């Protein structure tokens, strides 16, 4: 099967956008990711998928810890920065939570310890056990058909 038709099909699944962060030798590293899901409530587990040539893979293997930062609609530039889509040097703002760097002003910062991992083709799946969470109000950045977008939360009245 052609890669393009696979990507086009996967792109029909609208997602939010996250930045995965971890720290190595006191230095933060971030990577944009939309392969993220909630897995279990007891224990509280989430799943991310990191491609084999991403710098993030070795960094999470070494740190044993990562944060999932769910981006707001105002953070498309943050997503582009951590996807390598902005070429000029930037100094992104990080906060600290449970001894790890997290993305400032994200809708959620979810700090996890690696609970398990599984190599799956050209990606590695990491299960993370959630250690700490910070939440903020706002609307999400979305990714659909290879394009960023926004949604407005439905009014319930
Ligand atoms: P790099 O490519 O070196 O880093 C990414 C970028 O972040 C670079 O521009 C780097 O300069 C910058 N950066 C990182 N840390 C810092 C810092 N501390 N200060 C300043 N800049 C910094 N790939 C996956 O494996 N899984 C996914 O689920 C996934 N989902 C994606 C979803 C979307 C919407 C997009 C656009 C891309 C997705 N990617 C995904 C691709 C992935 O984001 C890129 O391939 C990314 O460049 C890989 O990052 P890296 O760890 O190899 O590091
Ligand atoms: P795209 O058309 O490549 O992405 C559409 C969908 O295809 C994504 O949402 C994802 O579900 C899937 N996909 C894309 N690349 C994949 C990969 N290497 N492995 C597994 N699934 C993949 O959209 P785009 O705007 O061209 O993407 C921008 C860049 O980000 C591309 O280089 C793309 O490969 C990368 N990306 C990677 C992943 C991933 O590795 N899981 C996910 C999304 C985007």
From TrEMBL:
Family annotation (Gene3D superfamilies): Electron Transport, Fmn-binding Protein, Chain A (2.30.110.10)
Keyword presence, Oxidoreductase: yes
UniProt entry keywords in alphabetical sequence: Oxidoreductase
Stored Pfam families: Flavin_Reduct (PF01613)
Domain Flavin reductase like: 10-150
SMART domains per UniProt: Flavin_Reduct (SM00903)
Keyword Oxidoreductase in record: yes
Residues forming coiled coils: none
Alphabetical list of InterPro entries matching this protein: Flavin_Rdtase-like_dom, NADH-dep_flavin_reductase, Split_barrel_FMN-bd
Protein name: Flavin reductase family protein
Organism: Lysinibacillus zambalensis
